[in-house]
Structure formats: C-alpha cells, structure tokens
Amino acid sequence: MKYLTEYRDGPKARALAEAIRRETTRPWAIMEVCGGQTHSIIRNGIDQILPEEIELIHGPGCPVCVTPLETIDKALAIAALPNVTFCSFGDMLRVPGSSHDLFTAKSRGADVRIVYSPLDAVRIAEREPERQVVFFAIGFETTAPANAMAAKLAKARNLPNFSLLVSHVLVPPAIDAIMQSPDNRVQAFLAAGHVCSVMGYWQYPPLAERHHVPIVVTGFEPLDLLRGILRAVRQLERGEAKVENAYERVVTFEGSRPAQEVIAEVFTTTDRSWRGIGTIPQSGWRLSDEYAAFDAERRFPVGDIATCESTLCRSGEVLQGAIKPHECPAFGKECTPRTPLGATMVSSEGACAAYYNYGRHETVKLQV
Description:
Structural class: alpha/beta
CATH architecture of the largest domain: 3-Layer(aba) Sandwich
Largest sheet: 6 strands, mixed
Number of domains: 2
Number of strands: 11
Shape: globular
Oligomer: single chain
Helix content: 25-40%
C-alpha cells in the first residue's frame, strides 16, 4: 500500500539506524511527543536498533491519557442523567474515572454510544430531539476541526439538544512546559505529524529558539521516525536548534488554513489541566462565547466534582517522561489492559499499553 509498505522497508531502516550510529558521539535524550509515534517505536522495535547513547523519552502526546480525571468524572455524571445520550469514541470507554468508567456506566443502563465522528452525534440529536445528546470532544489539535464543525453545524441547524464536553489540549504549550521543568532531560523533540498537518509548524520556531532545542516534525512509520531521529541527532551533534520538517509529504509550514479558521471561530484558548501533569497555562481550547450554548459543562450540573486518583498508578510520571512504563510497580500486575489503573494502559496511544501489548514487560522480566 502506497505510503505504508514503502516506509516499512527493513534494509532501509537498518541503513538509517547505522547512519544514526555513525553520527552519534555522546548520549542524547529525544522525546517523541505523540503516543501514536510511541506505539510505532515499540511495535517496530525502533528503540532497540538505535545506539545505546540515544534514549527515546515517551511524551504526553496521548489525548486520552491526558484528559483530566475531573473531566472523566464529569462525563460519567452527565451520562448517568436521565434523558441523556452520551456519545464518545470507543477509546474513552475504558478510561478509569474515580470510581468506574463509561463502559461500566453503559452496563448500568446509561445511554452511552460509540460514534466514529462528532457529526454522528449531531445526526443523533436531529433524529432524537427529545433527548439531550452530548459528544465527548477530546484531543489535540488534530481532532479539533471536526469537533468545531459539529458545533457549527448544530448551531446552523438549531439543535438545542446537542452539546459538547470539551477537553482539547495543545502541543506547543506542552513542549514549553516540559522545557521549563526543573527535572527536564529532553534535548530534542519529534513533533507529531498529524497535529502539524492541521496547524502547520509556524508555532515551533520560537520554541526552538527560546529553549535552544531541535524540533523535527515526523510521521509514524518506521522510516519516518528514523529519519526524524537522524535529523535530530545531527542538530544535537552540531549544536543547532531549529525546526525541520521530515514529513514533507503531509505537512506544510502553514498547515490547513480552513481548519484553523473554523477552530478560531468555535474555540478560544484557555488554561487546561492535564491528567498526571497539572495545569498548563493557555494549553487548551474551550468553546467561545458565541458557542457557549453548546457547552455541556454549562448545561448540566457537574461543577462540583470530587476526584480520586489511584495511589498505585504512576502514569503521571510516564506522561512526563520521568519513568518508563515498566518502572511502575503496578505495571503488568495490578494494572493491565483488563484492569487499568490509569489511562496510559487503556488508550491505543498510551505508553503503558504499548509496553504491555508488545511484550516489553516480558522482556524486562527475562532480563532480571
């Protein structure tokens, strides 16, 4: 398949790994921002063919994982209300709240429905005007245009029974926060190609200059990632700190202007809490005043939510790149995909799920 098999070529991957080895003269720590990149790295063993001087740090780029516990609990409270249909992508159903998850709420009788697009939820609101239909609008910049279009369409069609529970987060402020952390070890970033396909990468040069850190936009296939790592290593070895685009077939500097325009119309920037990390100023979007009528947090009585995180789960440290998943004592024991303590074990982009699903916990046990 074009743009898949040609970027999964074994000999070319080994040649790129050898090029990285030749370029590397000292230890370097590189963070891949996106959880999709993390899964590709672990699934394809990319980290295992790199020179031992290169450490890949798994970043907070899993939107399911960083959705705050308070928002999950609000989703559960709304879903439990009578006459409410709560719509979500499937990967949110197993994310644990303080006491249970949306899958459990569904089993208890809540009308929780899996949809494949926010526009599906708009259509449900049209077909069932007697019910309040809520869509769980989470994600990074990638999913924001479709969520914005859902709100725009609901307004145009005058659907008073449709609303969004919004928890959008943004990549550039997260990179800024990581670099300002006193415990930061990251020396270069692999930026998420799908985010940049929407937003471009015009926001990144000031970050690279301010923190003197290389940022390389990469895709998700093995050759994409290896080329991104090679470019990052070359910059580090030369003492450079600039933004490079290693995903030219998809990403442009400007990004998608129409997508950015609809986002700007429907959303406005706000401080946002990240699960396991805390509040990052101006790191998220909420509905603008023009679309406030479609804000589920205003429509439903969920303002006073008490949360309770697992005392065993260290997913916050995983999201910050402080530890690898298998370094959490609960990993693979109390915490598994069937009995998750944190979102990083549930999400299809979670680092813990990647380590578990691709046997890294078994490898670690064999080395002991």
